[in-house]
Structures are given as C-alpha cells and as structure tokens.
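Human: Respectfully, please carefully check these tokens:
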Amino acid sequence: MIHVLLPVHNRRATSEAFARALARQDVDFHLLLVDDGSNDGTADAVTAVLPDRTTVLRGTGTWWWGGALHQGWLWLKSHQPGEDDVVFICNDDVDIPDDFISTGVSLLAAHSRSIIVAKARNPENGALEETCYTIDYRRCHVALVKPGEPVLCGPTRGLFIRWDDMRVVGGFHPRLIPHYLSDLEWTLRARRHGLAIVQDDRLWLMPQPEKTGYHALTGLRLKERVKRMFSPKYAANPFHWCAFILLGFPPRYWLPALRRIGLWTIGGLRG
C-alpha cells in the first residue's frame, strides 16, 4: 500500500488541483489529508475528487507543517501499516507528472535503507534543480548541495520512504520546530538512523512560484519586526533555529552555531 501524507491549510484551489494530479497517477494509493483548520472547504473539495481513497485528519490551525506531519505519523503508527508499505509526503503547491508516484516507488525499491527525494524542475526553463542540502555546522549555514558535497538533509516535499524505516526514525517535534526546519531536522535524524538520501533525475516535480511565510524584516517598525521574527511563519525564527541546532548538529558545534543565532537575532531586531 502507498500512503500519501498531505498537509493542507486554506488553499482550496491549490489543494484541489493537486488532488486531481493524484487522481491521474497510474497506481493505487490511500490519501491521508491532514487539514489544519481550513475554513474554505479545502477538505471537502479534495474528498470530492478522491472520495473512496481519502482519510481526513482535522486540526484547528495550530499544527503547522511539522505538527501536521506528526499527526499523520501518529495516525499511521496507530493503524500499523505493513513493513513494506510506502509513505509519500508532499506539498500541495506543486505539479507532478502522471507517473510520479510509481517512479518514486520504483526508485525506493531499488535503494534499500534510503529516502527518495524529488528534484525540482524550473517552470521557466525546464532545468532540473537540487532540493537537498548540505550544512556547514560551524557557520550554521544550510545550502543546496553542489556536485561532490554530501547530502545531509532534504525537504519533505516529494519524499518517499518505507513505513518500516519511517517508524524507526519517529515523528516530528511540533512544539520545538513547528514549521520551517522541521523537515530538515527529520531528514538529518533519518541519516543518523542509517538512511541514505537519494535523488534521481527521473523523479521531479514543478513547484508553483507562490511563496508563503515571512522572509524579510526590513522596513518594519520594531514591534512588527519582533512579532514576525518569533512567528512560526518566519523562516529564521531564532527559537526554532536553536532547537534545530540542538537536535541536529554535533554537540561540538552547538556553541559557535548558537552564537551565530544570537548575532542574527540582534541584527534582525536592529533592522
């Protein structure tokens, strides 16, 4: 069985379009739709597209990405999938080819003790782009991998993993890292459990250009800067980065990395 784990929140048209892409897939699957408090009919729209293959978990808007994935993991754990069952995790704001799931499952079958992560196809020029990361622990710098660099972590957007491996890796940390960085911490942990992160040009998705969340603080008054900096929607939230460091970095790098976070925070507050 293939379990599709899909968090959604108040993007009815986007989620419905992705559900239609799932309906065109050339394999059977079970969709676990984790709807974190949508009030625009997202869950009903998706269920209407896939009425016989969808289970809906409903939140109140406080799960965020990491919390939604954790709820999905808890549901799977309680329903005891088969060891060889496959879990496919994805965002709804991507386009996927009709053989995407079957390609991911085939690649997973060819690589034991692995996670398969899709590459991204640039919607403007069609070029394939990296989606996984390497980390300079001392500088606390996360960057897309370059040829020859080790892949240390990756996104949970277009990710395939056997349930038996996912069960061992465990769930997410929704209180410590509710949104951004939750996928990087989880895939770092997977590598510590001996799983390799594999990419293949045959598995790709096309991200949609819209961006969510807060990505800059410039030009804001101090009160608004503080509010955004400590919001789960801010990619550089210092609390979440500190948790990411303590959970994912080797201990010898904790102090220099945390010092960097302190300097970033001061700089952000000063604008």
User: Anything to note?
Assistant: The chain has a mean pLDDT of 94. The radius of gyration is 18 Å.
